[in-house]
Design brief:
Two copies of one chain form a homodimer. Chain A is an alpha/beta fold and 341 residues long. Chain A contains 13 helices and twelve strands. Chain A folds into three domains: 5-48, 434 Repressor (Amino-terminal Domain) (Orthogonal Bundle); 62-171 and 303-329, Response regulator (Rossmann fold); 173-301 and 335-340, Rossmann fold. In chain A, helix 8 runs parallel beside helix 9 and helix 10 crosses helix 11 (257-269). In chain A, 48% of the residues are buried. Chain A binds a DNA duplex (16 and 16 nucleotides) through residues 4-6, 14-18, 20-21, 24, 28-30, 33, 48-49, 51-58.
DNA sequence: GTGAAAGCGCTAACAT
DNA sequence: ATGTTAGCGCTTTCAC
């Protein structure tokens, strides 16, 4: 049974309140007393009981994070790195991460299932705030949380609803793809194709805009060079097949590593060599991009920085500090590997 | 501000304790009263305050999990799938996962750093128990927790110390590799090489034993066919180079997908075709194995089942139920892809 | 079957 | 600068 405030107080020869002050308002104590109390804390290995502190202060020092199901048969592995970065950033701010999942195990059925995890934690005052990760099209999480005045910050811009007033942190996908496209232009490529997602995807449109921007700046036409397909390996492969059989690009930029891997499949089937015959660039710097034979050049999101900014925003939010920067946009980098030369 | 027991009691026209009973001991109430209370709970959207309940019952319904740093430039991605499986399994048992990290950010320096996260959570009674994931050589976590009588279950056998009495769940790596080797034997391979880890790794030795077992059962010699190297892509590539230049195996089984990808590198550099010229099998069924062009045959750990068993053991432990099965050993499966024919 | 009283460990407000 | 009092929301005796 861990020691309590009373145990420390007795040992130090002071009252419980003085021990509490020694922890939360050390400047209130006379140095001599403070030292004595700290010695007692040290000797007993005392740590404040979190439940009691939580009950009293109404702060759990817990941040809720919904963990979306791990996607297999894709190269979308950003979550792993992100969660770890978040654990680190939270720890430095004195917070822990509380994980929960969406609906009843299987695929996210209704919007209610998706929101149930948030609702439970909110009503039971289990967490101080949430970090929301999927802000893409049709996701009701942010609006639902806003309506309920639940404290949260989002990884991802409020694409659908620019009037949303919650703090957010995002990565500038357009800038990342522009970087990738410029990299290919610099290497002498002229016909650079784009494989992206459906038009309804804001993130997909954003990333595509980077390609368009770089191509326009270089005075290169883009007609027939863009395809919109699903975010799967097979879709990427099929899209590459179509492009290679028609417009014959010398380089292909993709909205994701998953699609880029599909392109690698297509090249392999044709006996073409990535980087030598056709350059390929992906997005997310997944483990797959890092270790696939030859290496896949990819846009890397600064997830560690994203985590730090998210926690910073959260601290400001919970402290009700004026947080002027409503949104923070971070710039990705490019990890250059064999697939681009 | 969420409603409290008192609010529900007032609305239902009963006392607070009756509401508490309605939640925790429904059979104590007369059906009519119970119904009225439940209606009030429903109408108010009442959820017990977790901090208060925790303080009173000394049960946080939180499970602590240390998240080891995500390894980049490897194919070791089992953690992602495992954490998600654990969140699901915990949820069904009424628990949430609390994430923490090891030392002060950077590489795990001392053993004390590693243990500090556990210590903090334990002393502050933040979690009811831990799930420990790295039980490999030289890891002090389990012994430290045992000494402190901290409730925990381990994913991984107590290799070093078979006298350890904590519950554990593990995957039979030897059986998995045996499965893989048998699969290759069935396809007509005779010279099947092994690329594994250092002799000091219990897990590595276990997996290797599966290869030895299958080879012995088939009456195949193994001389010169085994290599011990680090768990990196480069080490796997170099080991494959050595093997292909010497004993010329027709198939290579690896202790990890990371090493197996290294083998793929070696084959690619030699213009050899995985599966046609040389068969390759990895371990972990990582995203890399799943999407790499051609596909990498790999041993797949039943992580969802592992998570379920871990939580089951934890429940028994916390309920002080007699949990006779000290350890549970689960059998992996083989995901067959192009690299093995 | 239901209600009254006590207390988990802590901190905020006040008194000294 | 330190001690006293009260109460956060819940469950656990123990009366009735």
């Amino acid at each position: 049974m861990p020691p309590t405030l009373a145990d420390v107080a007795e040992r130090a020869g002071v009252s419980r309140q003085t021990v509490s002050n020694a922890i939360n308002n050390p400047d209130l104590l006379r140095p001599q007393t403070l030292e004595r109390v700290q010695a007692a804390i040290q000797e007993l290995g005392y740590r404040p009981n979190r439940a009691a502190r939580h009950l009293r202060t109404r702060a759990s020092h817990l941040i809720g994070l919904r963990l979306p199901p791990a996607q297999e048969f894709t190269a979308n592995a950003a979550m792993d790195r992100f969660v770890h970065a978040l654990v680190e950033a939270s720890r430095e701010a004195g917070y822990h991460l509380l994980l929960f999942s969406g609906g009843p195990g299987k695929p996210e059925t209704t919007a209610e299932d998706l929101v149930r995890g948030y609702d439970d934690l909110l009503r039971s005052t289990a967490v101080d705030a949430f970090i929301v990760t999927d802000t893409y099209l049709g996701n009701p999480q942010t609006r639902w949380l806003s309506e309920r005045h639940a404290p949260f910050v989002a990884f991802g811009r409020p694409w659908e609803d620019p009037d949303e007033t919650h703090p957010w942190v995002d990565v500038d996908g357009a800038a990342g793809v522009e970087l990738a496209t410029q990299h290919l232009l610099d290497r002498g490529h002229e016909r650079i194709a784009w494989i992206g997602w459906a038009e309804t995807s804001f993130i997909g449109q954003d990333r595509r805009a980077g390609w368009e921007r770089a191509m326009a700046a270089a005075g290169r036409p883009t007609d027939g060079l863009a395809v919109r397909v699903a975010d799967t390996v097979d879709a990427g492969r099929e899209a590459a097949d179509v492009l290679l059989d028609s417009v014959r690009p010398s380089a292909i930029v993709c909205a994701s590593d998953t699609q880029a891997v599909g392109v690698l499949h297509s090249l392999a089937a044709r006996g073409l060599h990535p980087g030598r015959d056709v350059a390929v660039v992906g997005f997310d710097d997944s483990q797959v991009a890092q270790v696939v034979p030859g290496g896949l050049t990819s846009v890397r999101q600064p997830l560690e920085q994203v985590a730090i900014e998210l926690v910073r925003a959260l601290e400001a939010l919970l402290a009700r500090e004026p947080y002027d920067a409503r949104g923070v946009l971070l710039v990705p980098t490019l990890a250059v590997r064999g697939s681009s030369g």
